[in-house]
Design goal:
Distance between the termini: 15 Å
Largest sheet: none
Shape: globular
Number of helices: 9
Oligomer: single chain
Structural class: mainly alpha
Length: 277
């Protein structure tokens, strides 16, 4: 859920000298740390859903039959064959990606707000620009780890560690493998964050916050975040499916258009759904 960093409060005039000279964390660093903490919590909580999403996006054509396997069926299959902890497979690359990645996103977002928006809230289009730009910067920086995360979650690769996976990918596939699915990733991440931030900020503006009980503010933020996340996910789900396929099989797909054509040919009705959060 977006966090809107604000400048640290100025010390009171009558404060003791000892308090006035206490070092304070730089706002950009504060945004990075808070973003990293929120990324850690959300990763640990939602990793099972992320794993199921990746498996569904790649295994859907193989398990389609008279009774199409869905999220619940796959959930029990993973628990039965890989144990309950198997749902958290890939959590280490997820941490390696989200902790710095979300920090980069929020610190970039804060710097752009300070540069382009002074003492005012962003408009809808400005929110799209801010969110998309910050997420594009973060996505490009963390793309190699995103590739490792996707491969861990697929269950098709036997990497022993994040470092070992990065080393193996670089040695066998080169830079192209490290940044496989770059276009599809940007087509997913940048629009997602832009749409998310736009709906989040605009939804909050509809609520008269000055008349709202401060105790209800966390609930308001939570509700706005869910609403914005659902709409952004629906808009970018096709790009997410393409990204997953390209990162799992970079030798097979040399261009984004090849992955799109294959997905549509093998499963035209459901290729871009994935049936998972």
């Amino acid at each position: 859920m977006p966090w809107e960093p604000s400048p640290p409060p100025l010390p009171a005039r009558d404060a003791a000298p000892r308090r006035r000279h206490q070092p304070e964390m730089h706002p950009v660093l504060k945004a990075f740390v808070c973003g990293s903490i929120s990324g850690t919590c959300s990763t640990l909580l939602f990793q099972p859903l992320d794993l199921l999403k990746t498996r569904l996006q790649t295994l859907q054509p193989a398990v389609n039959g008279p009774g199409r396997a869905g999220m619940v069926t796959l959930l029990f299959r993973v628990v039965r064959t890989e144990s309950l902890l198997g749902l958290w497979k890939g959590v280490s690359p997820s941490f390696a990606r989200c902790i710095p990645g979300v920090g980069i996103y929020f610190s970039t977002l804060y710097m752009m707000k300070q540069k382009f928006l002074v003492d005012r809230s962003p408009t809808a289009l400005e929110s799209v620009f801010l969110g998309a730009t910050a997420r594009a910067v973060s996505g490009i920086c963390m793309l190699p780890v995103t590739v490792v995360k996707t491969r861990y979650e697929s269950g098709r690769f036997g990497y022993g560690s994040v470092y070992g996976a990065l080393k193996s990918i670089y040695q066998t596939e080169g830079t192209r493998g490290m940044f496989s699915g770059l276009t599809a990733t940007l087509l997913r991440d940048a629009p997602f964050s832009g749409i998310y931030l736009m709906f989040y900020t605009q939804t909050k503006k509809l609520v008269p916050q000055d008349q709202l009980d401060p105790m209800l503010m966390p609930l308001l933020n939570f509700g706005c975040g869910i609403f914005a996340g659902i709409l952004a996910s629906l808009a970018t789900q096709p790009a997410d499916v393409v990204k997953t396929h390209m990162q799992l099989s970079p030798q097979k797909y040399h261009r984004t258009s090849q992955a799109i054509a294959f997905i549509y040919k093998t499963n035209p009705a459901r290729g871009s759904r994935g049936d998972a959060a």
